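Is magnesium ion placement plausible here? Inputs below.
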Amino acid sequence: MNRTPLDRIRDHLVCLKMSCALEALDTSIRRLEQGELSALELLDTLLGEECLMRESRRIKSSMMTARLTRIKTLQSFDFSFQPSLDKERVMALAQLDFIDRGEVVHLLGPPGTGKSHLAIALAVEAVKAGRSAYFATLAEIIESLTRAEREGRLAHRISYIARPALLIIDEVGYLPIQKGGANLFFQLINARYERGAIILTSNRGFSEWGEVFGDNVVAAALLDRLLHHAIVIEIAGNSYRLRQHARLVPESLRLPPISAPDPLKKRRGRPPKLQQED
Ligand code: ADP
Ligand code: MG
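Reply from A.M.:
I modeled the complex. Tokens:
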């Protein structure tokens, strides 16, 4: 049977698993025959469609692996709502140099100020740029480490969570941590120390970490590692969730801005692009 060049192109596209190009082939050929496309433009269109589809499939699958199920972007963040937040600093972080430098970004602020939104948005940027990420709340991480320890696979679990280029630990300080949990978390942070970037979000100041982790010694050891190559960003504004109903929240439940202890002050305000501190 005589196969035409077009038949062979179809076979090649099947063989190369280029389903998107295959799908676009007939329409593109028709446009070529009608003089709307040149041969070069046809090739460009087919390869372009295929690349676009593969890229979007890659991002989707990396998002799933990173557990990024809620998608937030920097474009959808209204910086004008949080005047205390330096937009330039956040946009500099989106260049992702902090990942290469293995730095720890602390996003601090009261509930609803956009900490998780920004953490997710930075993770989305990282995934789009081909970096691996892993997103979880502190409670989820501790629960998963506790289960792994019980099942005798703690080392494996720690190395799995510590592996991605960017680890996002959301909601430090919302729930109290039992001593065993704090120890497990310390093992993870120790495994991760100087090996990869972390974003932590918290509604509590560092001076409260002893209380958060139920143990001053473990909290001090955690802070020692998590403030070594750190970028601290504080959001001192109002809750975006409550923006239409803020006046309904009683005064007694309004949270004061977070205050970090004095020794950390010199670390704040450091632009992310500077050299690492020792
Ligand atoms: P936090 O983690 O600080 O408690 P979130 O990041 O979860 O707050 O924000 C609460 C909700 O409000 C989310 O749906 C988030 O997308 C939205 N949000 C918060 N701040 C902003 C903002 N400045 N612009 C747009 N959406 C925001
Ligand atoms: Mg949050």
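Short version: The chain has eleven helices and five strands.
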